[in-house]
Amino acid sequence: MPSMLKxxxxxxxVWCLIGAALAADLQVPAQVTAGTAFAxxxxxxxxxxxxxxxxxxxxxxxxxxxxxxxxxxxEVQAAGRYVAIxxxxxxxxxxxxxxxxxxxxxxxxxxxxxxxxxTARDAINATAFVFDKFHxxxxxxxxxxxxxxxxxxxxxxxxxxxxxxxxxxxxSPTPKEGPVKVIATVGNNEEPRIIQQVASExxxxxxxxxRTAKGVEVQTDSVKDCRGNxxxxxTVVSFTAVDSKGRTTVDAPIKxxxxxxxxxxxxxxxxxxxxxVVIGNEIRL
Amino acid sequence: xxxxxxxFWRHVGLTLVVLLAAALCSPLLFRVLRADSLxxxxxxxxxxxxxxxxxxxxxNVTRDxxxxxxxxxxxxxxxxxxxxxxxxxxxxxxxxxxxxADQRKTGVTIRYTDHGHNVKAFFYSPDGGEMQLLDNxxxxxxxxxxxxxxxxxxxxxxxxxxxxxxxxxxxxxxxDPVANR
Lengths: 285, 181
Prior knowledge:
The structure holds two protein chains of two kinds. By secondary structure, chain A is mainly beta. Chain A has one helix at residues 2-22, and strands at residues 26-27, 31-33, 38-42, 47-53, 58-64, 68-71, 80-88, 91-100, 106-112, 115-117, 124-131, 142-149, 156-162, 166-171, 178-186, 189-198, 207-211, 216-220, 236-243, 246-253, 260-263, 269-275, 278-284. Chain A has a five-stranded mixed sheet. The radius of gyration of chain A is 36 Å and the shape is rod-shaped. Mean pLDDT of chain A is 88; it is low at 14-22. By secondary structure, chain B is α/β, with parallel strands linked by helices. Helix content of chain B is 41%, strand content 36%. In chain B, strands 1, 2, 3, 4, 5 and 6 form a six-stranded mixed sheet that branches. The A-B interface holds A 31, 49, 51, 53-60, 78-81, 83, 85, 87, 92, 94, 96, 98, 100, 110, 112-113, 125, 127, 129, 135-137, 139, 163-166, 168, 170 and B 50, 91, 94-96, 98-99, 102-103, 105-108, 110, 122-123, 125-127, 129-130, 132, 134, 143, 145, 150-151, 153, 157, 160, 162, 174, 176-179.
């Protein structure tokens, strides 16, 4: 029995070699740009089925071996690895090739955070992803321009080279509050984003007080940070009164730049003010 | 009578053992088990920048990338794009969904046998919103038409991967095969 097996295996091996030799040969280009039509040369003769299997598509159609196989631009829009296969009466033959991204034409831009205090150092992160017109990431080095346009003051641009399709930068806010526009540009494609810069902690917090029929009305001066930016409305200011009955604290939000409240005090008292970690002046009545 | 009952149960037991052994040796079962098992993913984040990676994040990225490849293999073999929903999003999901739609149309299926992924994480955005990885994957790829193998190869394929965090997992947002240098 083993003596029979050897010639059978040899015959099978030779048959495989003949089959491989007869199978149509495909000559694919080494590299194709996404969305570009091209042709694959095939050898052999007779009818066959052509397959093109790529990252986002599978094409199957009948062809005549020995002629050029035309691949339409729409069939290779996604970048990545493709396998071209022909299957005829003599078996199948295949050849892989790569489709690479075209010219950079689109940029996808992320800017974080959306709101930032003016004193937060290196708190703004800009990340841009570079794509061709078919949304394929462009991996070759490409310059991305980040243009920063503050509400007041001159605009400036920082150019960053994208590595493996990504360009990023970190920056500190500009000194003044208000919206800052950051525009990422690749070629003619611009992607603008807006970041809202807000004042930092209150600085030189001061209050004034006057007696009323019900008690004492306390009011802050215009609440600003140390750079002169108005602290946003809604920021809570705490007023504390200490008198013979004990301690009373009232929280009041800033409205139109000032915070005010009425404290139910009739006799002598000490009133203080605080916002966050900042403590203001004291008033003795 | 007692001896006959004992013999009966012995036969039943033997039959079950033989059936179990046959089932375990069946190539079909091996294939099913292989499809469901998780591919091996090794993550190297030594050179990651600008943000360093926390240990738990590294563990989660490794786990979720392995799940993504498990789902990709299962979806490509069964032509079911719904299997991509758990770990793919964005362009990666769109592209694979389109390919599987084409596979259904043409009767083509793709079978991956995954021999593991050496993944190098090299970019983690400062805000923690995106991570970019380079995967050196070793795969057996079989392309079938109507059950007949029309192409078969073992490849060392590089993928550039973009992953983004979701509520409870990391998603593959972009999975791009790139030419080996």
